[in-house]
Amino acid sequence: MKQITIAITGHRDIVVTELLSPLADGAVADIYLEVFQKEENLIVPMPFNKERYMEDFDSESKEEFLEYLKIADEVFEVENTQGCNYKSVGVYVADKSDILLALWDGTFNAKSGGTGDIVAYAREKGKEVVHFLCDREG
Q: Which terminus of the chain is more exposed, N or C, with fewer CB under 10 A?
C-alpha cells in the first residue's frame, strides 16, 4: 500500500500517514479531527514562532490552535526563504505533500503566500491539487 502525505489538504491503494498543515485560521484543523481522527501524524510547520504567529488569530482561533499544538507530533518554524514568511511555509507544505487540499474561494488576490499563490506554485511544480470551493467567510 502506498503511503502519502496530504497537506491541507483517494485512491483505494493509499493510506494517509501524515497531515501537514500550518493550521491557519479556518477549517484546516477541523479536517484533522473530523476526518483523520489522530490516526495519522499531525505536523505543524509555522511561518513564525508560536507567539508571533498567534498575533494573526482571533481569540477563539488562538485557543483552538493551542489545543491542536498539544496533540501535534511535530511543530516547527519554517525558515523564510521566499522573502515572505507565509510564502515560505506555503512552499514548504506544497513541496512536502503528495496532495494539496485547497479550502479556498478561488480568488487570486495576488498576496504573496496566500492560498492562490500556493495553489499556483503547487500546480507549477506538478503537484496534485484538490480544490474545495468554499466561501471566504464561515
A: C
Beta bridge partners of 5: 18
What are 70-95's pLDDT values in tens digits? 888 899 999 999 999 999 999 999 99
DSSP per-residue string spanning the chain: -EEEEEE----TTEEEEEEE----SSSHHHHIIIIITTSSEEEEEESS-HHHHHTTS-HHHHHHHHHHHHH-SEEEEPP--SSSHHHHHHHHHHHH-SEEEEEE-------TTSHHHHHHHHHHTT-EEEEEE--S--
Largest Cα–Cα separation, the chain: 41
Q: Backbone phi, then psi, for 7, in 5-degree steps?
A: -105, 130
Beta bridge pairs of residue 49: none
d(CA 53, CA 112): 16
Dihedral of alpha carbons 106, 134, 118, 82, sign: positive
pTM: 0.78
Cβ proximity of 89 and 80 under 8 Å? no
